Amino acid sequence: MKPATIIGIVLILLGIIGFATGGFSFTHQHKDVDAGPIQISHEKKETVPISPILSTIALVAGAGLVTVGVRSR
Fold first, then answer.
1. Taken in order 58, 62, 68, 69, is the CA torsion positive or negative?
2. Which end of the chain has fewer CB atoms at under 10 Å, N or C?
3. Chain-centre distance of CA 39, in angstroms?
4. In 3-state terms, the chain is what percent helix, strand and coil (to 5)?
5. Number of domains in the chain
6. Range of the domain at 58
């Protein structure tokens, strides 16, 4: 397969994942107090949204690259 086709397939998959999940989240653990044997901490959950516009752009660009990769054979 040509590199354009592979990159196009990856972009299509990323676009589909972006539409399906809407973003991704992760957790940070922060220590508030660390005084010898006493430790106080909290977890903070952060979410990074993925715009539907970016997912659409990834799908369209991926489809274009797959088309170019197939036609250039």
1. positive
2. C
3. 34
4. 55, 35, 10
5. 1
6. 3-71
Helix (H, G, I), strand (E, B) or coil at 36: coil
Sequence letter at residue 14: L
- Tokens read off for 51: 């715009």
Cα dist. 49→26, 29, 33, 38 in Å? 12, 20, 31, 36
Q: Kindly report, residue by residue over 27-65, the tens digit of the pLDDT.
A: 999 888 888 888 999 999 998 898 899 999 999 999 999
Both tokens of residue 40?
A: 């106080």
Task: Encode 19-46: b = buried (16+ Cβ within 10 Å), e = exposed.
Answer: eeeeeeeeeeeeeeeeeeeeeeeeeeee
